[in-house]
Amino acid sequence: MSIPQSVADILDHHVTFQWECIDRMYLNVYVPMLQCESGVASFFRIHRGQKFASSALMDPMTKAFVASMEQFSKQQQIPLVQFQKGQRKDEVMKEHLAGFDKPEGVMFIGKAQEKTPVFRTEKRRNPETGHTYPWIVRSSAMVNHFYCYCLDRDFGPFFLKFCSYFPYNAKLCLNGHEYAKCQLRKEGIGFKALDNGFVSCADRDRLQTICDQLGPEQIDDLLRRWLAKLPIRLRRRTGKPATATMCPSYKRSSR
Description:
Layout: H1 7-14, E1 18-30, H2 37-47, H3 58-75, E2 80-82, H4 89-98, E3 105-125, E4 132-152, E5 156-163, E6 170-175, H5 176-186, E7 191-194, E8 197-201, H6 204-213, H7 216-229, E9 243-254
Helix pairs in contact: 5-6
């Protein structure tokens, strides 16, 4: 006769290694003022000195952004990959990572069209004079995005995805497990890794401490260092890079 057991009962008797760590994180990177119609209008009228704010002013900026990214790829001899529909981007990254022989750098730049929020211009009419004028409104469109897949000494593989259309909103994707692996290697602590985690570690307490220490300061440093290396101009007048907001997914890992 068998006695029914719950999943929790089975895990209690079979788990030999347990730790808590941030898993994948997907962060929004943006210039706060440029996320609303009034902010975009102010940018063109006050910062750029234009009489009217119009999406027509964004077109040459978008072309310049694309040209700078393509030039950066060519000058640095970084592969520029056009992602195909249905293609798994992680698999493409693994292929490039396997052949990447530098301790740090941009492995490749991926390009894909994706639907995203944008600002466009619609014509409005002055009820008193009857004259028309442009007005900035929210919309959506299929826009090219550039995925910069990089290898960092502290964080391992990660990517920054940039929308090629003004105001160039971006996303930063990193993995806490990869961060922990990099720190363990630096300290010479042996471990056996899974694709996304650990099977064992020679110093479990140190592993947990490393995982606990990963926070906004380390992530902010990662973002700012790579914004300075890439051909991106998300900066305030003070010269500081754009703001990053964090929307992390948190995972409890057990082996």
